[in-house]
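User: I'm curious whether this sequence folds into something compact or stays loose and floppy. Could you predict its structure so I can see for myself?
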Amino acid sequence: MNTSALTSMTTVAPVALPAKNPMLTRTGWAAFIIALIVVCAVAPVLNLWVPEGSMFHMSTYAVALLGKIMCYAICALAMDLIWGYTGILSLGHGLFFALGGYAMGMYLMRQIGTDGNYKSNLPDFMVFLDWKTLPWHWTFSDSFMATMMLIVLVPGVVAFVFGYFAFRSRIKGVYFSIITQAMTFAAMLLFFRNETGFGGNNGFTDFKRILDIPIATPPMRMVLFVLTGLTLLGFFLFARWLISSKFGRVLQAIRDAETRVMFSGYNPIGFKLTIWTISAIMCGVAGALYVPQVGIINPGEMSPANSIEIAIWAAVGGRATLVGPIVGAFVVNGAKSWLTVAYPEFWLYVLGALFIAVTLFLPQGIVGLVKKWKGSRHDA
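Assistant: Here's the prediction. I'll summarize afterward.
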């Protein structure tokens, strides 16, 4: 056998790697651009320029409600990254949401200045409790730039420290979920105490200005609405990019078979800790956007029930879809806003029944149901 023949027999044919999927399909980009136009152009026009008597006017109540739900949608998206794509169910993400909210609330309380009831540079609750000076953790609360950093750093550092010890200890499954719930419950009890300097059970409220601009005016409310919408869309693109990268594929492999990932030479701890911290920061940013629009932050935001609701939004919309949790946040909170007014005594029963129904009959959520319906139509 000659050399050329032997070479041709031993040469391995190159393997064709699959083409990388685009971040969004053409339809996806079209929907994204439409959402961007609605947030940045349509909503401001309908609220600020269309007369109140017109059927096309967008009321201030609707602006505040949609802004609040978009903050919730950011939390649901953050939950999808760790639960839907990594298989880590957290029942304590309400803590990170509240930490970001408290960081923003401290700045807003300092912006009140001497316009409070006691005409003091100290927040009213500190004057009432006979505090003479600000506590040390309020040192940078009068700086907007420092507040923006704290909104990211505080939830991120708390999540990193907790996750570092939890993941290194190999805590998984229901045990991890219970520990996260205990964490947020302990933090809630801590923030309820007056001596911690966070307003006790009343928290922070009566905000007046942000960046020395009145906060209760329609233009400022619309600015906050637009910022929230842009943040949600930005986080969605970031999450889509992250999941489509090699990092995202490793996360999904950890979700499906963590032991095999370890045998393949990857250390799951670093991947889980990174996505856990990113998810917490996203919730902190959502909390910071939530507080000036709602006008209050108190320890109730750390209640375990609030963290459970975040998981319900992701489950109802559809885990591991990114779009699904956003849809779930809008559907569940829209229903909550209507039912708590029309039939307030039935809301918790409806919420529980919804979660059970989705778990039993719609494991892929609303988005999964829509995909299944489209597939059946295509087959027909």
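Summary: Residues 143 and 297 are 19 Å apart (CA to CA). Residues 59-302 form one domain.
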